[in-house]
Write a structure and sequence with these properties.
heterodimer; A: 391 residues; Rossmann fold; Glutathione S-transferase Yfyf (Class Pi), Chain A, domain 2; six-stranded antiparallel β-sheet; 10 helices; 38% helix; globular; B: 199 residues; alpha/beta; Dna Topoisomerase Vi A Subunit, Chain: A, domain 2; five-stranded mixed β-sheet; two-stranded antiparallel ribbon; 8 helices; 7 strands; 43% helix; elongated; binds zinc ion
């Protein structure tokens, strides 16, 4: 397969975005490195780039949180704008507080014209990221790993978010009905419960199938060596519904779920929750070179697992959209040992995607001389790094 | 809100509570009316009084009309074997504007929502079952919103109607999720009704 053409961010402009009062930066390389002390605004820079695509960016922030606090003036209207070179030529994306509008709102512009929704954005820009917060994924609850997986699915299948929300909504209704039954002793209307369970089955099976499909595609990409010399990983979806979809058609699985829920109303009423279903899915990670589950991995190996998944995800987006997404890797290099770091750099250089890396220790990026372009962040400025000149 | 003695502010306050009217547009409307009170305000006041006194929910279908049963239910040209179930009167009026349905209606008054505290007894479910049980009805079309709650309600009604031996159909796919019938254009509505399918 020929490599997908890459999407390149060539210029970034910020105004009153988080810690940045004003910034204009030009990027000329396929790999961009930003180093600086903690608090220099490196992550804010990556977040601004992530907001040029659909969604709430790499911190999942609300629009109002993105505003810079002026000196005694309170939060200020903010703006972030990117100039891109893509497979269809150059274009400008802008986002920020709408003109004269409230800080809680966020508007989008494409080539200076207002965009109605984020769907148009998704056709132009895609970004995937890895942040230090994601390291906790292995210790956190299953729900966090499920959300991580759902975000990966959503980037490729936008309707997935709606299926998950519809399932959660129907399940919340069922739980409420069963709770009322327990509290008031009155039997809940069985036809009403059956109608809710039907909705849960329909949306739940659609969500489980999408998760199952994405895990299979990620594993296939990882198995065919998408990460190059970087250690590969395997994902294991722990979900009875997804597993059932491997053995039976979706309609049969829906029917099985409806029967299971109908039979467990008493148990679920006593528990105060729906105990079985696709909302219980968990995602396991296996470090392939040693066939080691994430829980038994070192922190460096866990970081490597996440890097491998993000690289594979970027490859899938490139296949699906026809252009490689931007890769935003926040504080990734420091957690990898030297051989893994070099393998990562080699893998990034081989990808058609443009990647942005941050770190506090500029020396770690020395092997990228001649490949990457470096900047140093500090004091509200971004200046070219003489040690990493434009290749 | 403090009751104001100023008749202008009082009127603006009342109008601003109407759907689609904010305080600004309410003030603009009041100003326009005050320029010619005799031509606009008094006829409006009279029309409001007459409507408030005369309009009642139809005892058969739940439509709002000055006659009870409503003009749809009384119309001899209507196909009485066909009942279209809608969430609210706004949907009934939207279907009427589109001339999309030649049968009768049944206004449910909402959709099932355990979280919102709306159960079958809060909706006109029993009256619907009674209408069908009376006989003469061959098909019930469920024209409910394509939301999770709308789909759940449709499934629930199907379950309750089936033992009565009536054909139950639903609007064709293509009615957007969360889209109330009221906001759909008339062509889309008519097409959705034409392409209804059995459940
Ligand atoms: Zn009527």
């Amino acid at each position: 397969m020929p490599p997908a053409p890459s999407l390149r961010l060539t210029r970034l402009r910020l105004r009153d975005f988080r810690s940045w009062a004003a910034l204009t930066a030009r990027f000329g390389a396929g790999i961009v490195v930003v180093t600086g002390e903690n608090g220099a605004g490196k992550t804010n820079l990556l977040e601004a780039i992530s907001l040029l695509g659909p969604g709430r960016g790499l911190r999942g922030a609300r629009a109002a949180e993105l505003a810079r606090q002026g000196d005694g003036e309170g939060p200020l209207p903010w703006a972030a704008a990117g100039r891109f070179e893509g497979p269809w030529g150059g274009f400008d994306i802008g986002t920020g507080t709408p003109e004269g509008g409230p800080l809680a709102r966020r508007a989008f512009r494409l080539d200076g014209l207002p965009l109605r929704g984020q769907a148009d954005l998704a056709e132009r820009v895609a970004a995937v990221w890895l942040t230090p917060q994601m390291d906790r994924l292995f210790q956190d609850a299953a729900s966090d790993r499920r959300r991580f997986l759902d975000r990966l699915v959503w980037a490729l299948e936008p309707h997935h978010a709606r299926e998950v929300a519809a399932y959660d909504h129907a399940m919340a209704q069922r739980n409420r009905l069963l709770a009322g039954e327990r509290r008031e002793g009155a039997r809940a209307d069985p036809a009403w419960l059956a109608a809710l369970e039907e909705a849960m089955a329909r949306h739940g099976v659609a969500a489980a199938a999408a998760r199952r499909g994405l895990v299979a595609r990620l594993n296939a990409a990882l198995a065919r060596g998408i990460t190059g010399a970087f250690p590969a990983a395997r994902l294991e979806l722990a979900c009875a519904v997804s597993a059932a979809l491997g053995a039976a058609p979706a309609l049969a699985v829906e029917e099985g779920l409806r029967a299971e829920w109908a039979a467990s109303r008493g148990r679920d009423a006593a528990a105060g929750a729906t105990l079985a279903g696709p909302h219980r899915a968990d995602l396991g990670f296996v470090h392939l070179p040693r066939e080691l589950p994430a829980a038994l991995c070192s922190t460096g190996e866990q970081k490597a697992l996440l890097v491998a998944v993000v690289l594979a995800h970027a490859a899938l987006i490139a296949e699906a959209r026809g252009f490689a997404p931007l890769l935003l890797l926040d504080e990734v290099a420091a957690h990898l040992d030297a051989p893994r770091r070099e393998a990562l750099f080699a893998a990034l250089a081989a990808l058609p995607a443009q990647s942005f890396l941050t770190g506090t220790d500029a020396a770690l990026f020395a092997p990228l001389r001649g490949v990457a372009e470096g900047f140093r962040a500090g004091g509200g400025q971004l200046v070219p790094d003489a040690d990493l000149p434009v290749p | 809100m403090a009751q104001t003695d100023d008749p202008i502010e009082h009127l603006v306050g009342l109008l601003a509570k109407l759907p689609g009217l904010g305080r600004r547009s309410a003030r603009r409307a009041v100003l326009r009316m005050l320029m010619r009170p005799g031509e606009t305000m008094l006829p409006l006041a009279e029309a409001l009084r007459r409507a408030a006194e005369a309009v009642r929910p139809c005892r058969v279908c739940g439509n709002l009309d000055a006659e009870d049963p409503c003009h749809v239910c009384r119309d001899p040209r209507r196909d009485r074997s066909l009942i279209c179930v809608v969430e609210g009167v706004a949907d009934l009026w939207a279907l009427e504007r589109a001339h999309a349905h030649r049968g009768l209606y049944h206004v449910l008054g909402g959709t099932l929502s355990a979280l919102g505290g709306v159960g079958p007894e809060d909706l006109a479910v029993q009256p619907l079952l009674a209408r069908v049980a009376e006989g003469g009805v061959e098909e019930v079309i469920l024209a409910l919103p394509a939301t999770v709650d709308g789909a759940t309600t449709a499934h629930y009604l199907t379950d309750r109607l089936r033992p009565l031996g009536v054909r139950v159909t639903r609007l064709a796919q293509g009615v957007p999720i969360g889209g109330a019938l009221d906001v759909l254009d008339e062509g889309t509505l008519a097409a959705a009704l034409q392409a209804r399918r059995a459940v």
